[in-house]
Write a structure and sequence with these properties.
The chain is α/β, with parallel strands linked by helices. The protein has 3 domains: 132 residues, no CATH class; 115 residues, 3-Layer(aba) Sandwich (Rossmann fold), CATH 3.40.50.720; 279 residues, Rossmann fold, CATH 3.40.50. 47% of the residues lie in helices and 15% in strands. The protein has 20 helices and 22 strands. It has a 9-stranded mixed β-sheet with strand order 10-9-8-11-12-13-18-22-21, with helices on both faces. Strand 9, helix 11 and strand 10 form a beta-alpha-beta unit. The chain is elongated and about 120 Å long.
């Protein structure tokens, strides 16, 4: 039960009276006979009155004493400091002028001030600790290891102490700084990383919290793997700019995600070159509401474009992007356009009205099994849509057109991959044709693999399956994929677009391929569960058009380096534009027939490396 506010006020006044008496005793070396009782009679009553006024004005007695915090200590300091200042700087000089005496000697005044502060804060802290011990003594405290003993580590320790009432207990800090080892921070010992494996066992930790974002990705992954082996939950603190009102709370310390573990060393962009091209320009992004298109929009904002034109046919996600641009980013220079890249009339209106300088073409159908069942729609969006936007880019003298492609266009085994390869061929041959004609629009293709967290990624699917208790479904135990985070992919798209001179197909370094089974198991463990025991894993077989292994280059292709270590240029076969135009038009005309076999046959004829896999269209290979 809480103490009443008047009880707290009486206790505080009692502390002040005790501090005044103690100050006199200390000042006169505990010799009662040396005390000038004139001071006690007048100065002490004046000081007590000033203390009472300070307490009433600043309401030091209104705080809930069982939850005393820094704000309560601040109020006590101000209340006592104001009274001391009034007596010492105003009343004492006046008293001396009129009577020849100070109301209280300055030595007694200072001793009382420090004693009162110490006693008032101490008894509150004691009651708080005592209350917490009574409240949580029957609760099992969770032991926490904090990785990072810098400012972030201090914040985490304070948050655990302040917000969770002793339910969590920091048992160790771990830091890579050798100067900090064997020292203590807030009463907790700091250990080197080399001691972490032993710590995880000896401290019987329940949770490890990363307090800093600056830990190298390799080290972060190693720490997480150790924690998962010991069944320890892993959390991490968000970047400072995402703290609510600049303050960290426990609710913001979130569980580490698989995306965090797969992030690599941050990409070094030639930001000066990108800004030189994009500053003050009008940028059209098709497929702007998708995972890639929306991230490109977010990235471009910092390069100060004149206008962003965000085009998509998805009404709801486009609306959400509009709200994000207005709210979180506060970026005013944009327009959202609801439109379909396949509709030439609508797209002409967009180009005619906005007259974009640069186009990032991210609009595409990308789900392999879905497109395998709907070849004509893959053709219409991925091929015709690209043709419409590319041709209008030439007509309206766009400076650069950047096509966002996929590694599934390499030796395609699906309708989706083949349609994207056809789009690549069209813009590449168009660029060559324009060079011959002396036109200035440049066409650049960027090609990369799966993007973590995108709507087509396995990550969201696995999260949903784990949340519902499983099973987690995988098509094949040996299937592998290259992965890249959304920001990383979009940064490379922008870098390639800026460095491209036209006609290139830029291939991104995707790192090492990842076995999907390993990815699923790690995600299950990150959720605090055990694969095959808590969450079953079920193999469903390869889907239509799906490969076991993805590639980044066609057979016979080679690459050339660029100034950026993560970006290569693929040397691919070139096609005469007139031939490509004829084949593309023939393909698009087949849409009205809705004859899937004819559509696929013509694609296979023009793209000989297109071999269907696990699909009804395998019978058309070699015809």
């Amino acid at each position: 039960m809480n103490l009443s506010r008047w009880s707290i006020l009486l206790i505080d006044l009692g502390i002040v009276v005790s501090a005044i008496l103690a100050a006199h005793l200390l000042r006169f070396n505990f010799e009662w006979t040396n005390i000038d009782y004139h001071f006690i009679r007048w100065g002490s009553w004046i000081l007590l009155g000033l203390r009472l006024v300070g307490f009433l004005v600043l309401k030091t007695y209104t705080g809930i004493i069982f939850h005393t915090g820094l704000e309560d200590a601040k109020r006590i300091f101000l209340a006592l400091g104001a009274g001391t200042l009034v007596l010492g700087a105003v009343l004492n000089p006046l008293g001396y002028v009129s009577t020849g005496y100070f109301f209280l000697p300055y030595s007694i005044l200072l001793i009382e001030f420090f004693l009162s502060i110490f006693l008032m804060i101490s008894y509150r802290a004691f009651i708080k600790v005592f209350y917490q011990e009574l409240t949580y003594r029957n609760q099992e405290r969770k032991r926490v290891i904090i990785y990072g003993a810098g400012g972030g580590g201090v914040m985490v320790k304070q948050v655990l102490d302040r917000e969770l009432g002793g339910n969590y207990s920091a048992s160790a800090f771990v830091d890579d700084d050798a100067l900090l080892h064997k020292k203590r921070l807030l009463g907790v010992e700091i250990f080197p990383y080399s001691k972490l494996p032993r710590l995880l066992g000896t401290t019987k930790a329940d949770v490890l919290i990363f307090s800093t974002m600056s830990i190298p990705s390799g080290r972060r992954q190693a720490v997480v793997e150790m924690c998962l082996q010991h069944g320890i939950k892993v959390l991490h603190v968000p970047p400072v700019e995402k703290w609510i009102n600049g303050e960290l709370s426990f609710r913001q310390i979130r569980e580490i995600r698989i995306e965090d573990l797969l992030e690599r060393t941050p990409i070094q962009l030639d930001e000066a070159n990108i800004e030189r091209q994009l500053r003050g320009k009008t940028i059209l992004i098709t497929g702007a509401a998708g995972s890639i298109g929306s991230e490109i929009a977010r990235q471009i904002i910092r390069f100060h474009p004149k206008m962003l034109v965000l085009l998509d046919q998805g009404e709801t996600p486009l609306h959400e992007l509009e709200l994000e641009m207005k709210g979180y980013f506060g970026f005013p220079n944009f327009e959202v356009v609801l439109g379909d890249v396949r509709n030439a009339g609508r797209m002409r209106r967009v180009f005619d009205f906005f007259k974009p300088d640069y186009v990032y073409h991210a609009a595409a159908y990308k789900h392999v099994p879905m497109m395998e069942n709907n070849p004509s729609e893959a053709l219409l969006t991925n091929v015709k849509g690209t043709q419409v936007v590319a041709d209008l880019s030439v007509e309206y003298k766009v400076k650069k057109f950047v096509l966002v492609s996929t590694d599934k266009a390499v030796n395609p085994s699906s309708i989706m991959g083949a349609s994207k390869r056809m789009a690549e061929i069209y813009v590449q041959s168009l660029d060559q044709h324009l060079r011959e004609e002396g036109e200035h629009t440049r066409f650049i293709t960027t090609r990369f693999g799966n993007v973590l967290g995108s709507s087509g990624s396995v990550i969201p699917l696995f999260k949903k399956q784990i949340a519902t208790g499983g099973p987690v479904t995988i098509t094949h135990p040996e299937i592998t994929r290259f992965f890249m985070t959304i920001p990383e992919a979009c940064q490379l798209v922008m870098e390639a677009g800026a460095m491209g001179q036209g006609g290139e197909i830029f291939v991104f370094d995707m790192g090492q391929s990842i076995r999907i089974l390993d990815l699923a198991r790690r995600m299950i463990r990150l959720s605090g569960l055990e694969p095959d025991r808590d969450i079953p894993i079920v193999y469903t077989g390869l889907r239509p058009g799906e490969k076991l292994y993805e590639e980044v280059l066609n057979n016979g292709e080679t690459t050339l380096p660029t100034h950026h270590p993560k970006i290569l240029i693929a040397k691919v076969r070139e096609y005469p534009f007139e031939e490509v135009r004829s084949q593309t038009d023939a393909l698009i005309r087949l849409f009205d027939t809705q004859d899937n076999e004819q559509i696929v046959s013509l694609l296979k004829k023009f793209i000989p490396e297109y071999k269907s896999n696990n699909s009804i269209f395998e019978e058309l290979d070699g015809l």
